[in-house]
Amino acid sequence: MLNSCVFILFYTVAALTARIQNFKEHLQNNPKDKANKRRMLMSIDRRKKMLKFLRRTRYDAYEHVCTQLGIEYTFPPEYYRRATKRWIAKKAFCLQVYQQSKKLKENELSQKKRIPKANPPLYVFPKPTN
Fold this sequence. Notes:
With 130 residues, this protein is an all-alpha fold. It has four helices and no strands. It folds into two domains: 4-69, Helix Hairpins (Orthogonal Bundle); 83-114. The chain starts with a helix and ends in a 16-residue tail after the last helix.
């Protein structure tokens, strides 16, 4: 049985989900409406925080809320970097440099393997002085 705190969270998350759906429909018809887009993003963040809290404290209640509202949990990415044109160009250049240096090292290793080194003598006798 779910306690009253979980019920409050459930209804708040449900209200936020309904509000988010309304914002989505509105923004499909009015894509330039930045104020409502901001409100939708803020509602998404509030809902995400509440679900995160519920997931930490009462996982069974969290699962119940998600199944009732049709919300799917996705794990956040480990690392996210916005791909700008400059960053993409820099990464491509770094990869080219890495490939070229790798080829040079392979050539050096193959040349070292081809040329056998003469074994130095174990003992060098001193030259006699007259």
